[in-house]
Amino acid sequence: MTTTDTKMLYECLPVVLRDSFPTPLSTDEVADRCPPAFIYGAPYSRRGFQIYRHLRALEKRGIVARCPRENDRRVFWTYLPDADVDGEIEALDAIWEASC
Which DSSP string corresponds to 15-33? Predict the structure, then answer.
């Protein structure tokens, strides 16, 4: 995976989690909602495994968070809202909608 691929994935993962907010997604659910190109040809059963380390890196940066669940070994993730970022996204969405 190139540096460009990693940057694109780091931009994609928060968007996937933001779209599902406030409902947490498992690692596999996040992988399922990513464009196939970001999973770099991994067999279906290993896709979540391959993006887990990227989600952990985003967690360390304070962009996403783990949501533990009782009696469930899967890891669930959620988007951490950021007023500045969310405001910019809403403004861009409004511009996009107005242009269509």
Answer: HHHHHHTTS-EEHHHHHHH
Cis peptide before 22 (omega within 30 of 0): yes
E strands, the chain, in order: 25-26, 64-66, 76-79
Asked if residue 15 lies in contact with residue 8, where contact means CB atoms within 8 angstroms, the answer is no
Q: Tell me the one-letter amino acid at 63.
A: I
Average pLDDT over residues 30-46: 65
pTM: 0.74
Strand-strand pairing, 76-79 and 64-66 = antiparallel
The pLDDT of residue 59 is 94
Q: Please report the beta strands in 46-86, taking only residues with DSSP state E, as ranges in sequence order.
A: 64-66, 76-79
- Give the Cα separation of 20 and 14 in Å (integer): 10
Each residue of 91-100: b (16+ CB within 10 Å) or e?
Answer: eeeeeeeeee
Question: Could you tell me the domains of the chain?
Answer: 3-99 (1.10.10.10)
